[in-house]
Write a structure and sequence with these properties.
Length: 468
């Protein structure tokens, strides 16, 4: 049988996504596929929320501009030298790789948590798109403090958007990648246009005027915490902690021909998490000068962050279209990843149906504005929970020979529950979450220590229990 026919058979068995097999050579993709996907995913819906939320945290110009420059570089390096490096060696999804290390029973809990958290993030992006779609219907926009749906119009719009996004994501990686490639140039152009218009509305004539928009920073809005330089650096590094140091993007980069495709994440970081965050912050800066926003601030209330109206105020109908597309390009791959997580729990169910399940959960989450309005805190928590599990894959991959442990221990020993993994994650999570809560330490500050401790403990416990 030819290699082509073998690949066709594998694709038919696995539903075309190779969830429990290595990706065959004939299905590998060049760097351009990843460039479009990362540029689209990260110059997207979250950016319309995160940029303004930095302003609500009172950041200074230096903290924002230089802090984002450094934090995003650290994120790119993590993707390139950890995630992509391991992905092209094994060519397995995160979930199947974990199953081989942890065992089927233990990985079910992780997959469930991972899938649900991905759904909540996708739900926040559905919320973002809904703020744009609702403009022609004079829909009341959610406030920064809102947690529940504010009306029937909101519910109907969120459900319609959720259905469309879920159907696109259910078509698989190729469709998700193509959608990103088509949409990302439009979104990037919109962010650039929004930034230019906002600068004009703010009366910026030179770099000093631009710098003075943030100046030396300000007091945070009611209910927000103050962000310093290191808050910006560490938060922007670990904003996608679950994807890079948490190894979730093994599921994406397993399709890459070379590990060097990991450099394409720079398109997402510096177009999306740099230019787009700053452009979105400028839109919010314009709104903050309005009588409405000033009135809310004088009453001790935080002005709302609604991406749709902010973009519409700058570039009209194009702004509405851009926000809708931006929400889609983040939600699509996120729902795709969530579907893979659920499929690891119920492998007999097709990729299409598990993605529809994920999309349904995301749509329900999208009805509740709290996930979008508290996005900075949610992303920090999300990364802190999931990132340490990625350390188990990283430390096993790079140090299993030096530490003398068996690689893929659960598969080799035919065990369904590797207690070394659970103990390592539980201890690292428990210790540093306690430190964060007890001493009021910013959660992103303890993500790296928790990640490192989890990896070291995994090696120590594996050495102990495998010997016994």
């Amino acid at each position: 049988m030819s290699q082509y026919n073998i690949d066709e058979d594998i694709e038919e068995i696995t539903g075309g996504e190779f969830e429990r097999t290595t990706v065959p050579k004939s299905k590998l993709k060049g760097w351009k596929s990843f460039l479009g996907m990362y540029a689209g995913e990260h110059a997207a819906g979250t950016e319309f929320m995160i940029g303004p939320l930095f302003l609500t945290a009172g950041v200074s110009a230096f903290d924002l501009i230089i802090g984002l420059l450094l934090g995003n570089l650290l994120a790119v390096l993590s993707w390139r030298f950890l995630t992509a490096e391991i992905a092209v060696k094994n060519r397995l999804t995160l979930y199947y790789q974990l199953e081989k290390i942890c065992g089927k029973k233990l990985v079910i809990g992780y997959n469930l948590a991972n899938g649900i958290l991905f759904c909540f993030l996708a739900g926040a992006m559905i919320t973002v798109s809904a703020t744009a779609v609702g403009i022609p219907f004079n829909m009341e926009m959610p406030k920064l403090t809102d947690t529940t749906p504010n009306g029937l119009t909101w519910i109907i719009i969120v459900i319609i958007i959720g259905v469309v996004i879920s159907l696109v994501a259910s078509k698989g990686y190729n469709t998700v990648s193509k959608a990103a490639n088509w949409m990302s140039p439009v979104i990037v152009l919109a962010f650039i246009a929004c930034g230019i218009v906002a600068l004009n509305q703010l009366g910026v004539k030179n770099f000093d005027d631009f710098w003075n928009i943030w100046g030396e920073g300000a007091e945070p809005f009611p209910g927000q915490i103050k962000y310093t330089f290191w808050h910006v650096v560490i938060w922007s590094w670990f904003a996608n902690a679950a994807m890079h140091v948490g190894m979730s993007d093994l599921s994406v980069f397993r399709f890459a021909k070379k590990a060097s495709s990991g450099w394409t994440t720079a398109a997402g970081m510096y177009i999306g998490h740099y230019m787009a965050w700053i452009a979105a912050a400028l839109l919010y800066a314009v709104y903050l000068r309005s009588p409405e926003a000033q009135g809310l601030l004088s009453n001790g209330e935080a002005p709302p962050v609604a991406p749709g109206p902010l973009a519409h105020n700058a570039i009209g109908i194009f702004g509405i279209i851009a926000v809708v597309l931006a929400g889609w390009t983040t939600a699509n791959p996120t729902i795709y990843r969530a579907g893979l997580a659920f499929q690891a729990i119920i492998p007999k169910v097709s990729t299409f149906w598990v993605t529809i399940i994920a999309g349904s959960v995301a749509t329900i989450a999208g009805l509740f504005p709290a996930f979008a309005m508290k996005l900075l805190g949610f992303v920090a928590l999300y990364g802190f929970i999931l990132a340490p599990v990625g350390a188990i894959i990283v430390f096993e991959h790079f140090f299993h020979k030096q530490s003398g442990i068996i690689k893929n221990y659960a598969k080799v020993s035919n065990t369904s529950f590797n207690k070394s993994v659970l103990l390592a994650w539980a201890m690292s999570f428990g210790i540093f979450y306690f430190i964060s809560v007890k001493f009021d330490v910013f959660l992103s500050f303890v993500t790296l220590p928790a990640w490192l401790l989890c990896g070291v403990l995994f090696l120590l416990f594996s050495k102990l229990f495998q010997k016994n």
